[in-house]
Each structure stands twice: as structure tokens, then as C-alpha cells.
């Protein structure tokens, strides 16, 4: 999973994981990483959509039928990246 979260070197996910691997003190990291576990505090459904996009070979976004949380998804992307 680590390689999936680190696909975008400009993202806050990448920065958090990178900082945690360099030092135990990740107080300045955007997301808390502890013992190899990253803690994401966003909407679980939206975070799952973003992680699935990172898993996709072309980083394509796949959303459920009748998805209507576009504004919230955009906010999650901005926060995460």
C-alpha cells in the first residue's frame, strides 16, 4: 500500500510518509504516521475513491453510480494533495 500512497511525490500523502521514514518526529507532516500506519481523517468514502484512483495504472477516478458528492470530493483532493 505504501507504494500506492507514494505515487504522487507532490502530494501531502507522499510528504507524510517520506518524513516519517526519515525521522520519528513527524509533527510537521501533513498526516500522522505511526509505526508504518498513516492516519487519514477525511470522509472514508471519499478517501477510498482517492486511494482507488492511486491504485489505477493511469490514476483514473472511478466513482459509484449516481455519485453526487463532487464538491466534497474536490475538497478532499485539495486537502490530501
Architecture overview:
- The protein is 47% helix and 7% strand.
- The protein is mainly alpha-helical and 81 residues long.
- The chain has a single domain, classed as Potassium Channel Kv1.1, Chain A.
- Strands 1-2 form a two-stranded antiparallel sheet.
- The longest helix has 12 residues, at 44-55.
- The radius of gyration is 13 Å and the shape is globular.
- The model has no long low-confidence stretch (mean pLDDT 77).
Q: What's the structural blueprint in terms of helices and strands?
A:
Elements: H1 2-5, H2 12-22, E1 32-34, E2 37-39, H3 44-55, H4 70-80
Antiparallel strand pairs: 1-2
InterPro entries: SKP1/BTB/POZ_sf
Protein name: BTB domain-containing protein
Features:
81 residues, mainly alpha, Potassium Channel Kv1.1, Chain A, 47% helix, 7% strand, BTB domain-containing protein, SKP1/BTB/POZ_sf
Short recap of the structure:
With 81 residues, this protein is mainly α.
Whole-angstrom Rg? 13 Å
Give the H and E element order.
HHEEHH
Termini separation: 17 Å
CATH topology: Potassium Channel Kv1.1, Chain A
The structure class reads mainly alpha
Largest sheet: 2 strands, antiparallel
Any idea what the CATH architecture is?
2-Layer Sandwich
